[in-house]
């Protein structure tokens, strides 16, 4: 077999979707800093995030935690969007947290029946838009803002038309073999138009959908897609560590109080 033929075959192979060293990041949600600006319940979680690198994973997962690339928050950083709550959360993730941080807007951040632009403006000042994209180690992230309808008087809601259009528009720009993670505030159990959501994915390589809203760590599946619900440091003592490495996707909650991994729920999947 000639060297020219081998090189020709290699050029036809799909490109590697993510870098060889892999990607590790942390997810949390529903931090619910009080309107008075009391964010002390976040400090133990942040201290654990800062010191997590080098921690051994459970034996069935193997290895140690690489330095997390960032921390992602799936909304409701504030109980309600007071200036004091915004400032306290901002200080927590820019002064105490030693890792980059990304966030999306949750329904509490908008103010409920008394809407205020405080957190909307903060998200835009940090990320240029309420919905935005970024890429780390070859993995493309869609941080998606979905309008919440208070008139429904129900925590279960549809993903909005604008959010679905944003997903379709952005995915059309990304090569279909590129791994994509989509982050929403609503978790799988809270999404009432799941079929419409997964149809918006088209033929894109969606490896994970993140959500919050219901405060506890869960793992689910719908339409062949993996969903991970991120825990709240207000209601639990957990955050979730996500690792993508050597074609393997792992999402596992870490108890920042006991400094132990949680046995369940875990996601451990092979990527195509």
SSE arrangement:
Layout: H1 3-12, E1 23-28, H2 43-50, E2 71-73, H3 83-96, E3 101-103, H4 107-110, H5 118-127, E4 132-136, E5 139-143, H6 161-171, E6 179-183, H7 194-199, E7 205-211, E8 218-222, E9 225-229, E10 238-245, E11 248-255, E12 260-261, E13 267-270
Parallel strand pairs: 1-2, 2-3, 5-6, 6-7, 7-9
Antiparallel strand pairs: 1-10, 4-5, 8-9, 10-11, 11-12, 11-13
Task: Tell me about this structure.
This protein is of the alpha/beta class. The protein has helices at 3-12, 43-50, 83-96, 107-110, 118-127, 161-171, 194-199; strands at residues 23-28, 71-73, 101-103, 132-136, 139-143, 179-183, 205-211, 218-222, 225-229, 238-245, 248-255, 260-261, 267-270. It is built from seven helices and 13 strands. A hairpin with a 4-residue loop joins strand 11 (248-255) and strand 12. The radius of gyration is 19 Å and the shape is globular. It starts with a helix and ends with a strand.
The helical percent reads 10-25%
**Radius of gyration, taken over Cα atoms and rounded to an integer in Å:** 19 Å
Terminal Cα span: 29 Å
- What is the residue-averaged pLDDT? 93
Write a concise keyword list for the protein shown above:
six-stranded mixed sheet, alpha/beta, disordered N terminus, 7 helices, 13 strands, seven-stranded mixed sheet, 272 residues, single chain, Purple Acid Phosphatase, chain A, domain 2, 23% helix
